[in-house]
Fold these 2 entries.
Entry 1:
Amino acid sequence: MTLAPTLSGGLLIGGDRIAETSGGTHSHIYPATGQPNAVIPLAGAAEIDRAVASAWQAHREWMSLTVDRRRDLLIDLADAVHENLDELARLNVHDYAVPISFAGNAILLERFLRHFAGYVDKPQGTSTPVTGSFDINLIEREPYGVVGVITPWNGSLVVTGSCVAPALAAGNAVVLKPSEVAPFAALRFGELCVEAGLPAGLVNVVPAGAEGGDALVRHSGIRKIHFTGGESTARKVLQSAAVNLTPVVTELGGKSANIVFDDADLDAAAMLSAHQGPLMQSGQSCACASRVLVHESVYDAFLEKFLAVIEASTIGDPLDSLVVFGPVISQAAADRILNVIEQAVSDRSGELLVGGRRLGGELADGYYIQPTVFAGVDNASALAQTETFGPVVSVMKFSDEAEAVRIANDSRYGLNAFVQTNDLSRAHRVARQLEAGSVWVNTFSDISPQGPYGGCKQSGFGRTGGLEGLHEFLQTKNIRVGMR
Ligand code: NAD
């Protein structure tokens, strides 16, 4: 397998690359080969401090520009991303071995920038009459100033786009903290911000682990945190944010139900269930359809088609454009996922139909786990209730619509749900009853800049995308002008 173009670590603060840091280093391993990729300098409290100060300076410069200029600069940035899509996609492969066939991650970054550039010169506020007077009552929305964006390693470019684009469009500067596990594409994006002409420091990129992340959350110069990651980290972030009462958005994990009704197009449902399930980023996606609920009358027919799609998938080198299924992120993740599988077998949570093992042969050095399907799974089992974050899905049977909705909602998560049906009334009826931030009917989790994305229950709160995503980066001010 060929290794990366140029994998540069080093923070990006105020337009300068900084290799000497106080947060130690991280030895980045390429998951497809198990070989070291690069040594990543990590931000400690000192660099976070420097990044926040530089971002405040850049924020003032940003706000001193006309809205037309800010809009045009964001469009220039989208153009720069467009011209470098291939490089960004390749760097993202080296971030976490996501197959290059999933290069849509980089394209989505560009689309988020173009979408939110369009908001810069549009009205952000309103005015209303007030009771008993002719006063002018303005309701304005203004930027927070400097916001912290903390991203996970998976889908890192999409999350970068969905958070940084609206933050900048709203007038903020951003301290972007990518995971130390996936810093390459984010750092290149930071460079593109400078190359496109944005004020140096408007987007500072500070790869860090828990220590640097915590320093960012606790920093008194950070006015809002947008956190995407796991629920246990989110709890720590919320506790640290309490120090300065910093507002936080949380985009967390899921255990999404995918309901296949008896009137569904079974070929399409099987294709979607496989690619939205164990195959998509090897199941390492917040939107993974990890619980497949199938009507009893089509259960066997569906399973046959579902397993055939999985069987036909190409597994291998993530840089090969035909490959759809790559490794999981690390040795530790592989061990954890294999343990989940072993435990599910020993608990008799369901019947292991395919997969369950680590791949050998020429893929043995990488962290490849076979796409794994359990059938007849008990929804109360740990297998069905815990986010596995690997290529493992549970299939279960239901007998009527009410039972499908009950099982789907019997989860502490509420990020996505999927419905496969050709009955329009049923689609709407069921979608309304599902406890999830997004319901996708007969389609993949095709995240778009226009649609608000986020969860309910323990999948988090707040939204990215669309006007709601923009409003996460604006605070409201009421200005009343007395008329004498
Ligand atoms: P994680 O929670 O381990 O890490 C997320 C980020 O938080 C990383 O940048 C990490 O360095 C940082 N971090 C770790 N400890 C911290 C601390 N104490 N203070 C501040 N920051 C800290 O998650 P991960 O393994 O990187 O990502 C996987 C998780 O993210 C999964 O649960 C997945 O479902 C979720 N996710 C959600 C979405 C969404 O949009 N809802 C998108 C992608 C991933």
Note: The CA atoms of residues 276 and 289 lie 6 Å apart.
Entry 2:
Amino acid sequence: MDLQKKQSKMEKLRAQIAVCTRCPLHKTRTNTVPGEGDLNADIMFVGEAPGRNEDLQGKPFVGRAGEVFDRLLDSIGLTRAQIYLCNILKCRPPDNRNPLPSEIRACVGSLDIQIKIVNPKIIGALGNFATTYLFEKFRMAPAKISAVAGRVIEVETPFGPKKIAPVFHPAVATYDIHKMDILLSHFQAFKQFCPAHEPYPENIL
Ligand code: URA
């Protein structure tokens, strides 16, 4: 799919999300948080749900977890402009409680479309909820995040082979600074997909 087509499809999806009333979270949201980034990115990250700052600004990961996320990206030479970033839920659960199964079921259709449009090579599942959903979607046996974080799992999908890389949610490093080292090591999984690590072609001269 060319970039123009991707942009037009993502615009249509954004418009649908903006008026979505599929679950009760629409009653308490300030803004929907559809996601953002490079529609041609090789790397897509999926988080859990917008928090207070994200709800106010309509953008993903703009609070403290976002600061951790930016440091993790920077550690492998990436910026947000080079990835696509979104969440399982597009609206904030009140008081940042966990997403309910009914809310996830109502919302993930939009994530499925985002995955199809961006068609990344690797999907970073940020935390338990994204890992659980992506494992289910790609028909993998359910697994606890603690058992699979840091692994890169290859899956066959109707739109080609993909890799799923579950990592801890960046918010954990805001409660427990020791988790930052673990997250930094998990993020090495994405390094091979960073443009900064692509070698120059040998036949350039
Ligand atoms: N946590 C998430 O999972 N997503 C956000 O956008 C912010 C915090």
Note: The two ends are 32 Å apart (CA to CA).
